[in-house]
Structures are given as structure tokens and as C-alpha cells.
Write a structure and sequence with these properties.
Number of strands: 18
Strand order of the largest sheet: 7-6-5-8-9-10-11-17-18
Structural class: alpha+beta
Strand content: 25-35%
Shape: globular
Number of helices: 11
């Protein structure tokens, strides 16, 4: 048994012990599909000292490579900078494809919960690993999987065939879906997005399910689970356990604009104020999710203050706010500190709702989020 096989067996045991296999078929599929069969020999590891991704080759350290691949709670970055790492020393800056952490994969599979023989559209083929798990459940003939990157799509197709799976692998933009195979019983996107494409609704059978990681600029982790209405003109459902995934290429989360809008001169021009927000107001994932819904386009960054206290920066393309120990300094056309305080108080007054209390409805006019029932819009 190779070290990769040993790590695979260990991961199965750990996930089993933690109750990660929500359905018996998931454990069977996870056991049957070795993760290392879908990972390239070179993966990418982030180094804090230079804030870059460095290559790790299997031939150089197979034990470490296998440990990374089979860590149940950590993703494995398999591509940087869209396949063109250009920084000094062959390092990379932006992770652009990965094999998601096993626990995140299982979370989305449990939410999707396809039946044997059901038709599935998988968006974000990546390495091909998630597609292989789906093949184990629904059969390769019932799976269409889409990948925007030609090289990733071709490699995933080869890996799937080595394991005996021959789903339809399409190179294309997953936001448009794949009408030729519609209608689907399930649409699973394994890349994060901020807008659910209406095209997916029209390609899903009434009563079918759409599952996609969903994010805001304030909260980069979430999961929406939607059921398509009769007539296929809308879909609605609640948010689920928030996993983290690579961004859909057409909907990459914009970079934090703080470095562009803040300067020493603007600090001197800033407005002083005070706030009743607690220092940990964004530490609670449920609070942060709620504030993300109410503050679209706002980014948040924690930073230590000179006295060791916790401070937060809030920023948009035109404004910023610095919050620390009850004091605020702000610049720009928006009063971001007050907006954050009002949104946080709204969350408190609503009874500190959790992620699972929020939902979303998508139709041809766009998407809207709501709290507990569709008639209570958030915003």
C-alpha cells in the first residue's frame, strides 16, 4: 500500500468518525474514489512569508503531498494564476483551481442528494473528483459536467476514464448551463458565486434542486439550496452550512479596495466618530453572513491596533472606515461605520438569526434574500 493509499484510508476513518457521511452512498463513493487519482503531481502551497503560492512536487516529498491531498478539512490548490504562474521563482499569486476539502465536498453532495439514475448538471469540473463521486451515485450516462478551462477539462476527462467513468465533459462557461442535456433533476455548482444564473432554473425540472456555494464581499462562504418552481420561472430555498470554494471564473470576488482608496493624506482628512459596535461584531459567522446581505459591496479586514486591540477596516471603491475600541475614522461618501452598526443592531433585534434562517428567491428579475419567510426581504 502506497502512502497515498494509507492517507486515503485514514481520511475515510476520520470522516466516518466525525459523522461527515450524511448518506450511506456518500461513504461508499468516497471509499471507491481515491482523491489522489485526481490530483496533479504538482500542487501549490501558500507561504506566509511572501504571501505567495509555492509548488510542491510529489516526487520531492510524496509523504507531504499525500497528507495535503487527503487532509479532510483543507483544500488542495491545483492551479494558480489560471495556469500561468509568473512571479519570481515560479511562484503564484492567485489560486484558480483546487480540489475542495473533503468535508466541503460532502456538504454539497449531502445538499444535492441525487437519486440513482437522476440527471445531474455539474458546474466546475476542476480536477474531476466531484464528478467521479457523482458518477458513483447516478451513473456516468446521467452526468454532464462543465469546466471553463480547456486544459482542466481535458485532464479531468482522462482521469475519469481511467477509473471507468465516461460522463459528458464539456468545456464552456457554466453560467449558461448546458441546454442539450436539460432538464436536469439536480444542478450542482462547485465554485462560489454571488449571482445564481437564471439559465440554470430554465434547465432544471420542476421540483429539481440547484445547489451552489454563494458569497458576498463581506462573507466569502455560504451555500444556497434552491427548489425550482413549476413552470421553471423561479427557484427558492434556504441557505445551508457555509463551505468555502474557489470562485466561479466569471464571478470572481473583487479584491478588497482598501489599498486603492486609503492613503496617509486621506487619513488626515478623515472624519472622527464613535460606535457602539463590539470589537468582535464580525467574529460570529451568522452575524457576518447577515451583515453581508445588508451591506453588498462592503469588504472587511481585521488588523491589530498599536495597543494590541482588535480593529476592523471596512471599505468600498469610494469609502473606508477604521473601527477600533469604540472609535471610528472614516473617509469617502458613505458612513460605513453607521451602516455596519445599524445592520448589526438589525441582526440583534431579529433574534440573532443563523445562516439557515435566511433564504433566497431567484427569477428573471434577479435574486433577493429574505429572513425566515419569502415576504421578509433583507436589505
Amino acid at each position: 500500500m502506497t502512502c497515498a493509499d494509507r492517507q486515503h484510508a485514514r481520511a475515510v476513518r476520520l470522516l466516518d468518525a466525525s459523522g461527515a457521511f450524511a448518506r450511506p452512498w456518500m461513504r461508499k463513493a468516497f471509499h471507491a474514489v481515491p482523491r489522489h487519482a485526481f490530483v496533479p503531481d504538482t500542487v501549490w502551497v501558500w507561504h506566509a512569508e511572501d504571501d505567495r503560492y509555492h509548488p510542491l512536487c510529489r516526487a520531492d516529498d510524496e509523504e507531504r503531498w499525500a497528507e495535503l491531498v487527503h487532509d479532510p478539512t483543507r483544500p488542495v490548490v491545483t492551479q494558480v494564476d489560471d495556469g500561468r504562474p509568473a512571479l519570481p521563482g515560479g511562484t503564484g499569486e492567485l489560486p484558480t483551481s483546487s480540489m475542495s476539502a473533503a468535508d466541503a465536498v460532502l456538504t454539497t453532495l449531502a445538499a444535492t442528494d441525487p437519486e440513482p439514475g437522476s440527471r445531474v448538471l455539474h458546474i466546475g469540473t476542476g480536477t474531476g473528483y466531484d464528478s467521479a463521486l457523482l458518477c458513483e451515485r447516478v451513473g456516468a450516462a446521467n452526468l454532464v459536467t462543465i469546466e471553463v478551462d480547456r486544459s482542466l477539462a481535458d485532464t479531468a476527462r482522462k482521469r475519469l476514464r481511467r477509473l471507468g467513468h465516461r460522463p459528458r465533459v464539456v468545456c464552456g462557461d457554466g453560467e449558461f448551463g448546458q441546454p442539450q442535456g436539460a432538464p436536469y433533476d439536480r444542478v450542482l455548482c462547485t465554485a462560489s458565486l454571488s449571482r445564481v444564473p437564471f439559465a440554470w432554473i430554465g434547465q432544471t425540472a420542476p421540483g429539481g434542486r440547484i445547489v451552489a456555494p454563494w458569497e458576498t464581499t463581506l462573507q466569502p462562504a455560504g451555500l444556497t439550496v434552491l427548489t425550482v418552481a413549476s413552470g421553471r420561472r423561479s427557484a427558492s430555498g434556504r441557505f445551508g452550512m457555509p463551505p468555502a470554494f474557489m470562485d466561479l471564473r466569471g464571478q470572481r470576488r473583487p479584491e478588497d479596495p482598501l489599498s486603492r482608496v486609503h492613503s496617509a493624506g486621506r487619513w488626515e482628512e478623515s472624519r472622527y466618530g464613535t460606535t457602539a459596535l463590539p470589537a468582535d461584531f464580525l467574529d460570529d459567522c451568522h452575524a457576518r453572513f447577515a451583515l453581508g446581505l445588508r451591506l453588498p459591496g462592503v469588504h472587511a479586514t481585521r488588523t491589530p491596533a498599536p495597543d494590541g486591540a482588535s480593529a476592523w477596516w471596512l471599505a468600498t471603491d469610494t469609502s473606508w472606515a477604521y473601527l477600533c475600541a469604540g472609535e471610528t475614522f472614516q473617509w469617502g461618501d458613505r458612513d460605513l461605520a453607521t451602516e455596519a452598526e445599524r445592520s448589526y443592531n438589525w441582526w440583534l433585534q431579529a433574534g440573532k438569526p443563523e445562516v439557515f434562517d435566511f433564504g433566497m428567491t431567484v427569477d428573471e428579475d434577479g435574486q433577493r434574500t429574505w429572513l425566515r419567510t419569502p415576504d421578509r426581504s433583507v436589505g
